Amino acid sequence: MSEFELHPRLAAGGFEMGRLAGCRLLLKNNALFPWFLLVPEVGADVEDLHQLDEAHYAEVMSAVRRVSLFVSTHFKPDKLNVGCIGNQVRQMHIHIVGRSLADPAWPGTVWAFDGKKPWSPEEIESIRAAWEAWNDAS
């Protein structure tokens, strides 16, 4: 198994929010959606969830659940989308996206939507602080 290194495209497209259960948590830089990426710290030879051993799979799914609960309680979306796609960036990463009936991509997918609006530094810090407080309290 090769050593973990965050793919440059994932690193460039978001902001580090911290680590959780052996995963990096990133906030995607698109304020149109509360969109997080959970990136398990595994080697490049592990691209899909079924390739994780059972214990690591359970850890990653628990992390997905924690981030999903945060997005649901903090952003209050109408729907939550979770997916491990990896067609453009093969490194294993899981999208956790809060969706709203009023968002500009509804009812389509966010990954096929071209619109972007960067988060302000204040918004990023506010979300980071909310994540840390929620994570500490849970």
Shape, principal axes of CA atoms:
globular
**Total helical segments:** 3
Catalogue the unreliable spans.
none
End-to-end gap: 33 Å
Write the CATH fold name. HIT family, subunit A
Give structural notes:
With 138 residues, the protein is an alpha+beta fold. It is built from 3 helices and 5 strands. It has a single domain (8-137), classed as HIT family, subunit A (2-Layer Sandwich), CATH 3.30.428.10. A 5-stranded antiparallel β-sheet has the order 1-2-3-5-4. 25% of the residues are buried. The mean pLDDT is 94. Residues 37-106 form the HIT domain. It comes from Luteolibacter pohnpeiensis.
Describe this structure in a few short sentences.
The protein has 138 residues and is α+β, with helices and mostly antiparallel strands. The chain has helices at residues 8-12, 54-75, 121-137, and strands at 14-20, 23-28, 35-40, 79-83, 94-99. The chain has a single domain, classed as HIT-like (HIT family, subunit A, 2-Layer Sandwich), CATH 3.30.428.
Describe this protein with a few key phrases:
138 residues, alpha+beta, HIT family, subunit A, five-stranded antiparallel sheet, 3 helices, globular, HIT-like_sf, HIT-like, HIT_Hint
Write the layout of secondary structure elements.
Elements lengths: L7 H5 L1 E7 L2 E6 L6 E6 L13 H22 L3 E5 L10 E6 L21 H17 L1
Antiparallel strand pairs: 1-2, 2-3, 3-5, 4-5
GO molecular function: catalytic activity
Pfam family, one: HIT
Protein name: HIT family protein
